[in-house]
Structure formats: structure tokens, C-alpha cells
Amino acid sequence: MKPSLQLKLSQHLALTPQLQQSIKLLQLSTLELNQEIEHYLLENPLLEREDDYEPSPPPTDAGFADAPGGALPNDRDEADARGEREEAADPGDSNEFSAENNAEGSLDDGWFAEGSYPSGSRDNDGDDEGDGQDIQAATTSLKEHLTWQLGLIPLSDRDRSLACFLVEALDDDGYLDQSLEELGEALPAELEVEPEELEIALKHIHNLEPTGVGARSPQECLALQLKARPAEPLRNLALTLVEKYLDLLASRDFTRLKRQLGCDDDTLKAVQTLIMGLNPRPGAQYAPLETRYIVPDVIVRKVRNQWVASINPDAFPRLRVNRLYADLLQKHRTRGDGGGMSGQLQEARWLIKNVQQRFDTILRVSQAIVDRQRAFFDHGEVAMRPLVLREIAEILDLHESTVSRVTTQKYMASPRGIFELKYFFGSHVATDTGGACSATAIRALIKQLVGSENAKKPLSDNQIADILGQQGIVVARRTIAKYREGMGIPAANLRKSL
User: Fold this and answer.
1) What's a GO cellular component annotated to this UniProt protein (predicted)?
2) Would you say 315 and 30 are in contact if contact means Cβ atoms under 8 Å apart?
3) pTM over the 0.70 mark
4) Pairing assessment for the beta strands 411-414 and 298-303 based on DSSP bridges
């Protein structure tokens, strides 16, 4: 076959860089958007925040010409340099600060020189009234806390090393989820560690704080905490229950428990209260805290008996083009020596337009949601109506994928709380009248029924389904069980009390 040239016409969808950026910004959360904008602010000198703007004299033509690659000088660099010159010119405060530290630091230096555990920094002004224990718990892991305690116990180097080895094997809750035999096999054979040595090392860990750490099961964890209490009849009865009949307590089989323990209702209730006061996860208090900050994108208020959505001004980044640099670029562009700054100017304008378009789309979708869910804002979850993405997309003439991006990781603040926009969408259940009831409303009804039930005779899933059926909401028992488990509500036998 001879090679030949052919012309072929075809159509395909091409995403311009501006459209790609618009889609990317639309699916970002508010915090991610701010991080993305900070990146653009560092890369593009023609882009600036309105609230950070400070009038400054325009750069000279010489400065523009001397800049490498035709780049414009950056006001931030000049401000940083000016700040460094001011600090160098007036070092009095820093010297006085150092002198105070040297005068007061002798006691602290001796304290930390002994290898003491506290590691928080102290405010040099002496005005810090924070709880040192809270700071210590927040900055110290469980393994560090236990290792510090082992350093205070008079042990041989071998025993301390084995105990530290077991500490490293603990999980975040303080449990030893591997058997001592498995851990012993992980040690080098030349150490010749006997199983009895690991048992002794584990006993040392059991004597550390928090009590219950190093346990191999919840029963052992609770038993260690009970053994640390003063001996009394109630404690001994609770210890027997934990070691032998904890499964009966978990299933709330109080009749068998009273028969096995030989006690009455009041005594069993006191024992149950004692056990409920124990901590089944002693190491959880030292787990690192992951704080998630939510900045609502939209605020909903009631104005003249109408629910109105508006953009949260704190979430909206106010950007603009730096006019000084833009004017200077325009002047040099007429001479034909604008360099690559023209592209950065276009980039800045695109970003400002796309950010504005992002929030306009969020506001449109939010207002459409508010219009469809007015009953929720008036009466709460029980009045939530079924809603799907397609319904909002058809109202606003948008694609479902666009509505999905808008409602993901975007939040709405209202008098009833802060909700993700996806919260207002959900499946529906048919009613006797031919209508539909939202799954969120059914969950709210289940929660209300469980909250008002008789604790001695809790409602079963069948009874809840019957009650909802009397209200015209046809829900199967397995659906009730699914919603109940999703909300973390135990079954009827586990909700029963004495």
C-alpha cells in the first residue's frame, strides 16, 4: 500500500485553559481555594488582594528594564527588606527580651536538664494562664508518655528495653493487639528472650498511667482499672462481671446477670454505673487531634418571611489587578517590550473572573436549594422534602456534574446549623397518599420516637415501622434497621434499661 495524504474533517470538544481553571476552582473547598489563590499571588505580581493593598510609588522605567526577563519588581520584597532594616536599626526590644530570659531561665534550664517530661513552651511575658496538662496531652503521644514513665522506674537495661519494645507495639487506644508469642518471634534470636521476660515487661506496663494500657482485650482493660480501685464489695462484684459475664451486660440480659451475680436490681444498677464510668480506650486521650475548620460559603437568613441565601463575605476572596503594574505594562507594550508580563496580566484577569463565576454558581445553586427546602428551615428535619441533583440542574439549566461539584465540600450556615449542600439531597419513600417522604425526614422521625420511648420497653423496628405506617409513611422493617444503624442507635434489646 502506497503512503498517501488524506484530509478529514471532525468535531471534538476542546477545553480552553480558562475553562479548565473554572472547573478546577468550582470543585475546590473554601480552604483549598484560598491555598490555590495564595499560590497564584506568589507567582503573579500583577494579582493582589484588595484588603492587602497599600499605595506605593510606581516602579521606574529603569527598574522595569533592569528586572530579569522583563519582570516587574515586587512590592512585597521591598516591604520585607524595609522591615529587616527597621529591626536591625532598633534592636533594643530584642536585647531586653533576651536579658529577661537569661535572668529567669536558670530554673527552667535545670528542670529540663534532668530529662523531665513537660515539653510545652512558657510565655515570656508570664501572662499565659493555659492549662499545662492540656498542652502536654495535646503535644505528647501515648508512647512518649509511657516511655517517660519507664525511665522513672528502677529497671535493668534489658527489662526497660523489652518494656519499650512492647510500648511500640501498642495501638492508638493503648491495646496490645499482638500476642506475646508473635512479638517474641519478631525479636532477634541471639537475644534469647524468654516468654516469661515479656510477661514481666507487660506487667510493668500495666502499672503505668493511664490505667488499663497494655491490655489485650476490653475485659482485661476494664479489669485492670477495677483492680486499681480500693477493695470493696461493689468493686469485687464489678470485677466478677467484667471477667466472666461482660457479654451478658453487652446484650443487656439483666435477668441472667442478677441470677449469676446473686444481687438485686439496685446493686446491679450500681455495678453497671461503676463499669460505665471506666475508660475502655485509655490511650485515646493521647491520640493526635485532627481539627477540621469549616468556613461556610453561603449564609441563609429570613428576610421579610422569605429565606434568602447570600455569599459569606469572609469566604469570598477579593482580588484585583495591580493597576500600577498594569499601567506600566501598557506603556511598555506600546513600545513592543512588554515581555512575558502580558500573559500574567491575562492570567490574573482569568482568575478574578473565574473566582467571581464560582461564587455566582454556588449562590444560584444554594438559593435553588433553599427555595425547594423552605419547610426544612421553618420546621426542621422532619419537614425535609426529597430532592435530587437533576431537579436543581433542570431549574438552573446546568449539568448534573456541575451541581455535584458545587454541592461537594461547600457549606451553608443557617439558624438551624451549618450543613454541607449535599445534605439537602436524598432518596425518598412513598406515602399512602401517593406523595414522597425524604429519607432525612424518616431518620428524624425515628430519632424522635426513640428519644421519647419508654426505656424499660424500647420500641422494636417493627413497632417503629407500624407507627410510621399509621402516619401514612410506608417503610419496611429492614429500612428502619438500616436508618437506625446509620444514626448509631442500638437495637431495642441494647437500649433497654433496668
Assistant:
1) DNA-directed RNA polymerase complex
2) yes
3) no
4) parallel
